Amino acid sequence: MKKWIMLVLVGCLFALAGCGTSQSEAQTGLTYKQGVLETTKYGKVKGYQSKNENVLIWKGVPYAKAPVDELRWKKPENPKKYKGTLDATKDSEMFIQTSQDGVTGSESSLRLNIYRPNTKEQNLPVMVYIHGGNNQGGSATEISGEAFVKDLNAIFISVDYRLGALGFNPLPALHTGNKLEDSGNYALLDMAKSLDWVKENITAFGGDPKNITFSGFSAGGRDVMASLTSPVFDGKYQKAIAFSGGMTVANPEDSVKVFAKAIAPLVVEDGVKKTTEEAYTWLQQDKKEVRDYLYGLSAERLSKLMGNASIRMSAFPHLYTDGAVLPKNGFDTKEYNDVPLMMLSGTSEFSFFAMGDPYFAESLANGDIPKNQEKLAEFNFAKQYGSDMYALFNTELSAEKLSEHYKGDIYNTKMPFGTNLKTTTDMSLVGAFHGVFIPFLDSNNQTYLSTITESYQLPGAKELQGEFRAYLKNFLHDGNPNGDDLTNWTKWSKQNQASLLLDANDNHAQIKMEQETDTNQAIIERIEADTSISEAAKSKIVHTVLNGRWFSSDLDAYYHNPSLWPN
Question: Which pTM does this prediction carry?
Fold first, then answer.
């Protein structure tokens, strides 16, 4: 059971090719020569080969200057040129964050990892990946490209970016008069900067700067979705993938109150103000003394703020509708970066978040779940209905929101893998969890595979892995996931509201198109009719476990759940 607790913590934190001179090389002045030593705009970088020699890898490559001192809450600047040859053979420190082991990482980690097949091919498509962790935790090592770039015949780049109150901060004292910096969306500016770096330098690694797919998981998926509305990201990528993403934004004015409330105890602790009420008011003012105080706070203290957000925007608001980086009307905008878009969701997305909720945490820790049937029924209730709403939020509801003004092709997919297996039990509690797709890409990923040791090894899972990678490869190369010998994946439209189901039983992949007929109202009706748990437990769960999440606005309205935002 301890292994599950560890997994919950991680989960919640949760072209054409040729060998001659390419058009991209001619435009950038950079060239790719097969090997571990390449020359970028900022100097030479030396990586290494994977043990099987199939993959070339460069780790910890800076895409911007370290955002420290006066650059802390500023837009990212170009990195300095390297002195000599940059050693890109080791993981860099993750961006500073607080985990169960305390504060870890560095405030200077604006770096990326690059993986490509060990071939001579050039003009390979590029997949830039933003990790999850609620924009408060996680790192570029979340997924390694080593296991799959050969199959995808593509370059995979994972990005570290500013996190927590260093990555998003709406307090007016930090405003500089620069509209981008005044947005408070510093992490989004980092991601945009990483895409600029890729566009300028990827030719040196054999990539096509005109064929970039911007992708992310969980918080990273939500960041990708937000970028579709952002003029800052216009033209920076040609395709997008949101793994367990969905549409989330925050009102800047409401967000200021949350941040002021979170930082106020530090102000009192430091003797600047006598009470948290005074500090709360003071922090919302646009004054130099407030700015100086904020810049004087250590990154360690800032990283501890607003933890345990648990997919609740009210606990750590980010992705501000500032009017410069993100439009003031958020996803109601009529102006999108119209690119082919893939959206994926597991069908048991809420399982880890239910396990981490205080209502279930003790029962999980002491073994009552799964042994106690009453507690197990309550857990399954929360998992089922939370996941039903979460999956809709990640795919169908996002597609519906986009449909009026978005001109790019939309491909929705759901992955129920783990819910229909007969010979293994290691997914029976978590189902098609938040991140279920990751082991199909990164088949060496020990975050999940150290606990789920059997199901991904089944013949059906191996077959599904091949099919999933084939769809992804086609999408990265051409913007259309379809190909020979694959079940046809039709585009989503108002007239054809269908998703591709990516599933497998023990022996074979099971892939088909299915019309989406579920709605939040239908889910609420099922909740009302459910007699598997007591009415008292049902009331507790809908009011304290399912409430205030990304996906629960309709549920909160129906059950009159109070807002979790400060007045």
Answer: 0.95
